[in-house]
Amino acid sequence: MRNLIEISDFTTDDLTDILDRADQFQRCWHHHTMPQTLQKQRTALWFWGKGFRNRVALEIDARAAGADAENRGRRMPTFSISINA
Q1: What topology is assigned to 10-75 in CATH?
Q2: Is there a contact between 43 and 62 (Cβ–Cβ < 8 Å)?
Q3: Residues β-bridged to residue 71
Q4: Domain boundaries, the chain
Q5: Is pTM beyond 0.70 here?
Q6: Tens of pLDDT, residue by residue, the chain (85 residues)
Q7: Please, what sign has the CA dihedral across residues 24, 29, 32, 35?
Q8: Cα–Cα distance between 68 and 77 in angstroms, integer?
């Protein structure tokens, strides 16, 4: 499975609703009125890649929504899966 979801999985109405919601979040962000939908929730962010910008952006977003966000970075143990054919 390459992608969890595809753009073709959505109807035109679905996509319009998603874009409208994104506009609403943008307005909330600029007015410092983000909905606290993650208040009293803990989120752990874990990334494989070395990218910095996306990691920090998601942590900022989670905190803006009220979450106690922790960026685990590379401190998480690595693991491997073996499949015997």
Answers
A1: Rossmann fold (3.40.50)
A2: yes
A3: 45
A4: 10-75
A5: no
A6: 677 888 999 999 999 999 999 999 999 999 999 999 889 888 887 776 667 777 788 888 888 989 888 776 655 444 444 454 4
A7: positive
A8: 21
